[in-house]
Amino acid sequence: MKPRAIFAKKVVTPIGKEYKQGKDMNSLIVYENVYIVYNEKILDITKEAPGVNVQAQANLVTPGFIDCHTHIPFYGFRSKEFVMRSQGAKYVDILKAGGGIHYTVSEVRKVSENVLAAFNIPFIREMIKRGVTRIEGKSGYGLDVENELKQLKALKEISEKISAGITPTFLGAHAVPKGKSQEEYLNELTENFDKFKECADFVDIFVDDGAYSVENARWYLNKAREAGFKIRLHADEIARTGAAALGVELGAVSVDHLLKINDEDIHLIASSETVAVMMPSTSFYLGEEYAPARKLINAGAIVALGSDFNPGSNTINDPTFVFHLAVSKLKMTPEEALTAFTLNSAYVLGVSESEGSIEVGKAANFVAWKIQELEDIPYLPAHDSVDFTVVKGGMIKND
Ligand code: NIG
Ligand code: FE
């Protein structure tokens, strides 16, 4: 790719190849009136007019958002469940009655890998236009070896068709399949770890009321670590079961959700290198409480943001809306929210060496905004504020 440039009135970015924790999440670099010179990678950030084609003028430029927690790929919708919940039914009761995740499983099992990929690509394109340059996607709607592998292969197919980066996670333990015990099914998954390892570096498990017990999760995650996986947990979302503490104990890369954690858990997480992943759009969508992000950051934790985009507990995939909720409900500063949604989420996915900030040598992944200031992002949720997104040097216009 031939070098090219954009001119930016303002560039706002965290800096570094690792995570930022606690109050350090506020430390951003601001450049004014600079050219960003790039091919697939960022080559220079300079005040001098570069001897290359200047493709566009931008107001505000930030790193591309890295959505470190989605449930792509899924198939089919659960709008009836959404209406039931709006009229008082509870997410966990629908799940326990065999609906929820189990309904999506029945839909996913019916379709081919190709259909699964084709159904999800439009959602990812939408996200790219809104500034996302990498997403994580999970299996978890197959609940048997064949269909879990189908989901992971669909993610591979998607990654060959779109420019944004895709990080796959094996979430075979998303619910307990009908007709099997937790122990039986987890055992079956571990016996097939070599097949899943070919498709994913991460293993995730839903440890909660209505899902897996802490005891079974400890056994399973230890096996996953032995098999060479990095581990993540859906933790303490519905009830405080001790899942976050288990994640810290096992050196998990992240513990995600954390709506129900207490001060003791906050202290444990803050004294560890396990990242707390916050997904305020799920709290919003379910009408539940918000995770204690402010307390976590004040205690020195590493906090990242994701959407949790899925067909049940949250259908919101718009990063500006997640950003809005991070500021208005989680009480994060706009600076902290930017770090959480770029550099720290890159760290969760193991790509912070090469993504997550606007720095020479990193991938040319950034967002050019029509708006002028960082605070305008959370102030104007779900508006069309992105001018264009650059992914690996390629410009995607939002029109
Ligand atoms: O992260 N909590 C478990 N899993 C998802 C929901 C998946 C679904 O309802 O389909 C979540 O909220
Ligand atoms: Fe999730």
Structural commentary:
Helices cover 36% and strands 23% of the residues. It has 399 residues and is of the alpha/beta class. The chain has 2 domains: 4-64 and 354-397, Urease, subunit C, domain 1 (Roll), CATH 2.30.40.10; 65-348, TIM Barrel (Alpha-Beta Barrel). The strands form 2 sheets. The chain has an 8-stranded parallel β-sheet. The chain is globular. The two termini are 24 Å apart. The structure holds N-(iminomethyl)-L-glutamic acid and fe (iii) ion. Fe (iii) ion (FE) binds next to loops.
List the helices and strands and how they pair.
Elements: E1 4-13, E2 29-38, E3 42-46, E4 54-63, E5 65-67, H1 79-86, H2 91-96, H3 101-110, H4 113-129, E6 132-138, H5 145-161, E7 165-173, H6 182-191, H7 193-197, E8 202-207, H8 214-226, E9 230-235, H9 243-249, E10 254-257, H10 263-270, E11 275-278, H11 280-286, H12 293-298, E12 303-305, H13 319-328, H14 334-341, H15 343-348, E13 366-369, H16 376-379, E14 386-391, E15 394-397
Helix pairs in contact: 4-5, 6-8
Bound molecules: N-(iminomethyl)-L-glutamic acid (NIG) and fe (iii) ion.
